[in-house]
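Summary for the steering committee. The consortium agreed at its last meeting that each partner would contribute one worked example illustrating the joint modelling workflow. Our contribution is presented below. We chose a case with several input lines so that the handling of multiple components could be demonstrated. No manual editing was applied between input and output; the record is shown as generated.
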Amino acid sequence: MNNSNALSKAKKREKKRQQVSFSLKRSRQLHILLIPGVLHYIIFRYFPMFGIAIAFKDYNLYAGFTGSPWVGWENFARVFSSPDFILLIRNTLLLGISTLFWNSIVAIFFALVINEVRHAGLKRMVQSISFFPSLLSVVVVCSMVMDFLSPTSGVLNQFLASIGLEKHYFMVDPKWFRTIYVTSEVWQKFGYNAIIYLAALSGISSDLFESAALDGCGRLRRIWHVTLPGLLPTICTMTILNAGSIFRIGADKVLLLYNPRTYEVADIFGTYVYRKGIYESSFSYASAAGLFESVVAFIIVFSMNKLSKRVTENSLW
Amino acid sequence: MKRKSKLKNRIELTDVVVFILSIVALIIVFLPFMNVVSLSLSSSDSIVKGEVTFLPIGFNLDSYAEIMKTSKIVRSYINSIVYTVTAVFLGLFMCTITAYPLSRKFMWGRKAVVGMIMFTMFFSGGMIPMYLLVQNLGMMDTIWGLVVPWAVPAYELFLLKNYFENVPYEIYEAATIDGASEYRILYDVFVPLAKPMFATIAIFFALGQWNSYMIPLLYISTPEKFPLQIVLQQMLIKDEARGSINLVETSALTSQGLKNATVVISILPILITYPFLQRYFIGDLYVGSVKG
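What follows is the complete predicted structure of the assembly.
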């Protein structure tokens, strides 16, 4: 009894050792495969993170990274005290929030409408066509926007002229910038954004609809009492997760759509860093502004994710 | 039962509204494209006069003929193709050799590496340090500056890793018992199994590179190396600069036909491959979200 017990123990130990040697040998091969990827991450993701130290230096090209003198928080002090700073925060937040708001509203509404289409062919066609613009590049979309709003040949101004209104140069009018940005964003992304809601809608049990119908609920009331509540968890999750990125608007689109006359409403951290850093070569100053943006964005993503975990039990990580 | 079928067949007011709304959505998506195509096919005269809306006026193919003659556009088109193909192959290769080890649960140090990669999804050094790094590595103004720093994005990497993880363990075990090395298993077993996922990731890389504009704007300075998107962007800026100097400057507008023809040919590859894109792109988005 004792003997066999010891024997099985020895066997177990032997097996364990085999497993360890197996995974050691296998791990070594896997590690070799992993080397390029890990090196890539160290060089192209972690190096720049340390490179951010130039935000605390007075970087100039001739002295190089190590030769440039340390200046502590001076660059940050200059960023925070710059008259642009408040404007940048306001523009970044306003653009981020209004984009998030309208993107969600239109996508949810569109998903609800598509969900009610009974003809399967029409449904598929509307879906696949509305998805297409999301594959276009920002440059193409901005080109469409500019042509559409062109003061001389644009469709919109032709229309305004035909009903007897004055032509308007929308692209240089600060009042219109945000509307133009958000509308084109919604036009490009609503089909794409609706996909997740449509998927959630197809998950709602049809029993609920049928029993509601038998109880004499009309279509609209069914949408209100069955569909929408069924969609609510997805709406919550998506809104919270997307809210994480309101501070992270890409500079590319604004860069294409803005011009000096609309800077006051259009300039965001991304474009500011680009202009100061790449155009004016104030690398240290631009890095300080960029680091501030990254940190705020990180805090927002992090806390939104915490919130999402608590409210909806879904999270990014 | 009878009531239910009646309910399904009766056309209500809601159906009419829904039908109208979906047609409106289709029109809203379509009209800007109609405008682009019309501008590319119209005579420059009618464009300048502001007559072109959603149908070509003074139909001609001059703009497209001009594209063929403009070496700048032709060259940038070829450049874009070269950059895209390179990005796809390099990206697929790097993602495969990185995702596979991370999908083997027993590998030592797996969690640390996954964590290290995940962190970069939420925090980055930003534009300037990356710019200086690319400069210091001598990748400025080369194809490598466009492709290498973005060869292993975390999102694509994790997609592939999850796919590899879902391959039944028995298949892997059988291969190890046969004495195959990890390299062999990856090449002969996992790569053929993951073809649909490769298609999806290849689309991500291809679309990303084809549409990329900010990165070449930062890293490419020689006009001969410009990708299509940069050439397009320059046409936009030229239009706008002239427009803001003088609202009715006519010479700015004659290029509009050419610009829109360039837009059309830049969209063409996406349009042609759209059925394929949809199958692997939306399909995966759908399945992923339903499961989740």
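Confidence is low (pLDDT under 50) at residues 1-6, 243-254, 286-292 of chain B. Chain B has 16 helices and no strands.
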